[in-house]
Amino acid sequence: MGSGASSLVATPLGYRANVLLPSPADAKYQVCVVYVIKAGGACDLILFDSEKNKDDVKEFEALTAKYDALIVRINPGQLSQGTADGTQKRFDDLMNSYIAKGKLIWSSPKIQMQMGAKDALVNIGKLNCGLMDTYAYYTNDEFISGFKKTCAFQPRVIKQNRGSAGEGIWLCWLWDKAKNEKIEIYPSAALGDKSLGDDDYVKLMEMNDNHVEYHTVKEFTVFCIDGPTGAGAGEWKSTFPGQYLKGGKEVGGQLVDQRLLPRIDEGEVRILMAGDTCQMAIHKKPIGGGLSAVGGMSDYTYYKPTDAKYKGLVQKLYADIPLLLPSLHLGDEPLPLIWTCDYIPKNPDNWPKGPYDRSCPDDQTEYTVGEFNCSCVGISKFQAVCGGEKTLADVPDEDYFDACALTDLMGIKAIEMIKAKKGHA
Ligand SMILES: Nc1ncnc2c1ncn2[C@@H]1O[C@H](COP(=O)(O)OP(=O)(O)O)[C@@H](O)[C@H]1O
Ligand SMILES: [Mg+2]
């Protein structure tokens, strides 16, 4: 950490910092991590050393107890990999005890579990951004009978909770095996009217790589429950292990069943948020005729939140915000410091020409949340030099200043939330 003057480097675009800035001498609040320094918070970077904290978290507690807020850059579950048994729980317990003492934790264990999990989509069903007909399954029976009903009515998306980048996200259509074509008229006239049988046939597309496979309903349910080697699973192209319910609800075993939104081929809109404020909208359009909007499978275009294209969407999200955390049973939590909402376009449910029609104008297009990300969302313009030998000094000036627009906003929002928590301006 350099002195104030030597921390800043002159560039044609302005002064930049390549190391942690010195904290203001008169800082009112003590916070962990980099972003808040410019906004007037004092900051330190602190490492959670799993060796020093393998029996209890006393070492880490001694380092962190003095702060008003902690910005945790550890993904949920990461503390269960290669660490002593129970490390994640001990860490989460400490974070929860800090919250009970009035500190702010971004993001808290509860936010990570309840907002970051796929079943959040069920809880937001009644909001503008949700779909009422979204279901979560935690047991084998719930999944088998639920999926047989939903998929008898319309194309669906089955989502596992633990993967990322489209792994275990399955788009499902009924398929006529004999004619080798899509079934246009589904057996069920209304959701719940009829159920598929084990031998009905589905076309499946996995969103990690857009690959397609055809299976019986039975094979699909066996794959989801027991994996590709389960009895009756058939032959699978997917390279992943299935078993999405394994371990039960407590350890994140769940499947979410959402309506397939056919306008996904127009892309997904990622709204990047710092606290209650949108910093950017990113349009992620599937490439190569696929339907996956995950990174690497899609093209990105960046928009300011004020841009006419997504202004309405951003305003709708702002209108949903007061209801968002309460609907996720997180009413007593602060918004995450950095989070994203991924929206998929759709026609209004009463659109006369149905969900596939492309004539619905922009101002009538609705958007549904496909997922929230609220733990460890990357500062993408810094990420290119993350890890390895490179440092912040290797980030090109343009990327640096783009990234700072986000991190500076996070700083402002962090201080705002701390002030609100402490009840003074
Ligand atoms: N309801 C849906 N209708 C159509 N496509 C969807 C739907 N939900 C997800 N997808 C597609 O699957 C991709 C991955 O799903 P997502 O829920 O974002 O999981 P992940 O955590 O793997 O990113 C999305 O980017 C989108 O392309
Ligand atoms: Mg996604």
Automatic annotation (TrEMBL):
Domain DUF6815: start-end pairs: 266-378
Source organism superkingdom: Eukaryota
SUPFAM superfamilies: Glutathione synthetase ATP-binding domain-like
InterPro entries tied to this protein: DUF6815
This protein's name: DUF6815 domain-containing protein
Source species of the chain: Chrysochromulina tobinii
